């Protein structure tokens, strides 16, 4: 059945909560998280671009991750915040499709990008003498292009097959944004194809990068253990620690939401999981990379001191 057979032209989003006593607090907390995510990721992008010694593949991919996190939060957070302050919590049929497309594009892109970042660390630690040759500018740009194109193409497929379904029983989305599992729960048509695509494409877009990350870090750990000095081992491991934490946070929450049958989904539990990887993780990523990365911290402090010095000179 096609999209033109749907009996309504908008969806009602139930949001995170209908409790009027906690809505103001929830709004303030989410707004603070959104602002922190925007400022934190913008800071990472600016510092990586301004600091010459950060013009390396590792920080190029980190810049892509930060931009991706800005896209992530900006796709869902404005509508989520609006739903906490207005009575009529609706989104147009077309708007829902656009939101789903961009959100799912971010999901797929980040899965592939995190896999590419682990490959970058693998080459840097396991084959350091060939690093500049293997990870040259052309290769890094091509790899980033692969991650973005994979996410965008993946999202086109899922958005088209999702909105080709007939939504006739209800237009109430028991969620805080337009995502595939809650939309499939509203469909009157058979969703077998949709679930099959989620599972099969998920193998390539999610599980393959994840397995690549595991293999990369097994090789990295073996290589680090062969380093004789404890200082050298610590330095090598510190370059990977931030990425490991981000991978655990992101994959630990996002995979469980998509790479499993829809019949096993609990929208209440999925809502909590979605908040983790679509709201909390984008805010935490710049903090993790700043606190665990000496180069980023030094560059950040350098520009903070520079700004303070200029302000002092202007006062004088």
How does the helix and strand content classify structurally? mainly alpha
**What is the total domain count?**
1
> How many beta-strand elements?
3
CA-atom Rg in angstroms: 22 Å
Q: What name does CATH use for the topology?
A: Rhopdopsin 7-helix transmembrane proteins
Largest sheet: 3 strands, mixed
Give the strand line-up of the largest sheet: 2-1-3
Shape: globular
Number of helices: 10
- Whole-number mean pLDDT: 85
The N- to C-terminal Cα distance equals 72 Å
Question: Quick one: CATH superfamily?
Answer: Rhodopsin 7-helix transmembrane proteins
Strand content: under 5%
Which ranges are low-confidence, i.e. pLDDT below 50, for 5 or more consecutive residues?
none
| Corresponding CATH architecture | Up-down Bundle
Subunit arrangement of the protein: single chain
Spell out the helices and strands N to C: EHHEHHHEHHHHH
Write a structural description.
- Helix content is 74%, strand content 3%.
- It has helices at 23-50, 57-83, 93-126, 131-134, 137-162, 180-184, 192-225, 230-258, 267-291, 294-315; strands at residues 10-13, 90-92, 172-173.
- The protein has a 3-stranded mixed sheet with strand order 2-1-3.
- The radius of gyration is 22 Å and the shape is globular.
- The model has no long low-confidence stretch (mean pLDDT 85).
Concise overview:
This protein is mainly alpha-helical and 316 residues long. It is 74% helix and 3% strand.
What would the keywords be for this entry?
316 residues; mainly alpha; Rhopdopsin 7-helix transmembrane proteins; 3 strands; 74% helix
């Amino acid at each position: 059945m096609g999209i033109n057979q749907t009996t309504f032209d908008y969806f009602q989003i139930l949001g995170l909560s209908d409790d009027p006593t906690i809505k103001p607090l929830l709004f303030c907390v989410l707004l603070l998280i959104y602002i922190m995510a925007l400022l934190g990721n913008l800071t990472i992008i600016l510092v990586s671009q301004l600091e010459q010694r950060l013009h390396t593949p590792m920080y190029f991919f980190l810049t892509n991750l930060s931009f991706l996190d800005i896209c992530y939060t900006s796709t869902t957070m404005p509508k989520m915040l609006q739903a906490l302050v207005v009575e009529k919590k609706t989104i147009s049929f077309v708007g829902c499709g656009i939101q789903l497309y961009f959100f799912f594009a971010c999901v797929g892109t980040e899965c592939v990008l995190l896999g590419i970042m682990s490959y970058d660390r693998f080459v840097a630690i396991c084959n350091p003498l060939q690093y500049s040759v293997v990870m040259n500018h052309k290769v890094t740009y091509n790899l980033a292009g692969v991650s973005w194109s994979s996410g965008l193409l993946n999202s086109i497929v899922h958005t088209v097959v999702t909105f080709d379904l007939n939504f006739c029983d209800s237009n109430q989305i028991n969620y805080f944004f337009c995502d595939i599992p809650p939309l499939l729960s509203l469909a009157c048509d058979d969703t077998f194809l949709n679930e099959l695509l989620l599972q099969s494409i998920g193998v390539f877009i999610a599980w393959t990068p994840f397995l690549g990350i595991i293999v990369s870090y097994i090789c990295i750990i073996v290589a680090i253990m062969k380093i004789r000095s404890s200082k050298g081992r610590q330095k090598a491991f510190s370059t990977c620690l931030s990425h490991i934490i981000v991978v655990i946070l992101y994959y630990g929450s996002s995979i469980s939401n998509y790479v499993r049958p829809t019949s096993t989904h609990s929208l209440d539990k999925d809502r909590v999981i979605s908040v983790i990887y679509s709201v909390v993780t984008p805010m935490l990523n710049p903090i993790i990379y700043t606190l665990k990365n000496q180069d980023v911290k030094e560059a950040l402090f350098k520009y903070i001191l520079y700004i303070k010095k200029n302000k002092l000179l202007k006062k004088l």
